[in-house]
Design a protein that fits this description.
about 180 residues; alpha/beta; five-stranded mixed beta sheet; about 35% helix; about 20% strand; globular
């Protein structure tokens, strides 16, 4: 009864050991850069998954990095508790609107983000996103210009070690002369 768990532990130690793994630092430095020429103060950053959201929240709230950037977790836009995360002043300033339910498609999720924060802020302040879903980006690109700012490859050490690319995009008002 003791041998089997020890064998499983020994067999999986290297895959589970996070000692020296700086992938979260690399990811958060890409989507929340220190350089204000890449992401100016007063910007909005829309994150899209827990890894991006929690690493940037950690950097901002624990380490005090880039408090001048407003981080909006798009993956929580439909959760009623998320609105309590913001002050009344932030809700008014950024014109935050929460979605009424879970998006059932890329188009619906893109619309929730547009209504939730993008439409009221693009053109008034810099807006960035780390959304890497091509379908959502395609829907947003119908209305906005989406420009890549930076990218990094991260080793995702889940069930299978795989490399994924995270891209930081800037969302801009589309040139109407095109």
């Amino acid at each position: 009864a003791v041998v089997l768990p020890v064998l499983v532990l020994m067999g999986n130690w290297n895959r589970c050991n996070r000692n020296g793994d700086i992938s979260a630092e690399i990811l958060s430095a890409t989507i929340l850069p220190e350089e204000t020429d890449r992401m100016p103060g007063g910007s909005i950053l829309i994150t899209d998954n827990d890894t991006e959201t929690f690493t940037t929240w950690y950097r901002q709230n624990v380490r005090g990095d880039r408090p001048d950037v407003f981080n909006f977790a798009g993956n929580f836009v439909y959760m009623p508790w998320y609105k309590t995360f913001f002050t009344d002043e932030e809700v008014a300033e950024y014109k935050i609107t929460m979605a009424s339910g879970v998006a059932r498609s890329a188009a619906e999720y893109a619309q929730q983000l547009r209504t939730g924060i993008i439409d009221a802020n693009v053109g008034r302040r810099p807006v960035f996103t780390s959304i890497n879903d091509p379908a959502v980006l395609s829907v947003l690109a119908d209305t906005y210009a989406i420009e890549p700012v930076d990218a990094t490859e991260i080793l995702n050490r889940t069930l299978f070690d795989e490399v994924s690319t995270t891209v930081l995009y800037r969302i801009l008002v589309k040139d109407r002369t095109q």
